[in-house]
Design a protein that fits this description.
Strand order of the largest sheet: 1-3-2
Largest sheet: 3 strands, antiparallel
Number of strands: 3
Shape: globular
Distance between the termini: 28 Å
CATH topology: Arc Repressor Mutant, subunit A
Number of domains: 1
Radius of gyration: 20 Å
Helix content: 55-70%
Number of helices: 7
């Protein structure tokens, strides 16, 4: 039976959740470093690579807003990110049929070649992750991380891209 003023459970829980927080941050940082290294030869940042991947996966032109709705790496409007890819000759702007106000973005020939390099870098990152985790660890990690991001902007973007879960309204973090 627990003592009335025994805070050991609370301290243990706080320490474990704090460790979880730092492990998530550390895993994200190490994954980002590994991915950036794999992209170095292509001279792309991970954020730029994600835009190219989104357009490559879509197999059609998208507006800046549509791209932004699918990005995990970039919150808010990706206008500057997209502009850097247009300036680099990897994306081209065009008008949307039926709506002259909407600007669509599509991959140029150089952009398609860069998207293939991104695919190779992603495959390298996936291989690295596969060596770090065994087949039993992956589903448990996915369930845990989905629970954390569900209903949040990054989780909603992942759900839209993968079609794996239903998107819910964004909710504030639990306190």
């Amino acid at each position: 039976m627990a003592k009335v003023n025994d805070a050991s459970c609370n301290v243990e829980c706080v320490e474990r959740t704090e460790e979880l927080r730092y492990l998530i941050l550390g895993a994200q940082r190490e994954g980002a470093r590994a991915f950036a290294e794999l992209l170095r030869k292509a001279r792309l940042t991970p954020a730029q690579a994600e835009v190219l991947s989104v357009l490559h996966e879509a197999e059609r032109s998208l507006t800046v807003r549509e791209i932004g709705d699918l990005l995990v790496c970039e919150g808010g409007s990706p206008s500057r990110l997209v502009a850097s890819l247009v300036d680099a000759g990897l994306l081209q702007r065009g008008s949307r049929e039926g709506d002259r106000r909407a600007v669509e973005l599509s991959l140029t020939q150089r952009g398609r070649a860069a998207a293939k390099k991104v695919r190779r870098a992603e495959a390298g990152l996936h291989d690295w992750l596969a060596t770090a985790l065994d087949d039993r660890d992956v589903p448990a990690a996915i369930r845990t991380l989905r629970t954390i991001v569900e209903g949040r902007p990054a989780g909603n973007a992942i759900a839209r891209r993968t079609g794996t879960t239903t998107e819910r309204e964004s909710r504030p973090p639990v306190r």
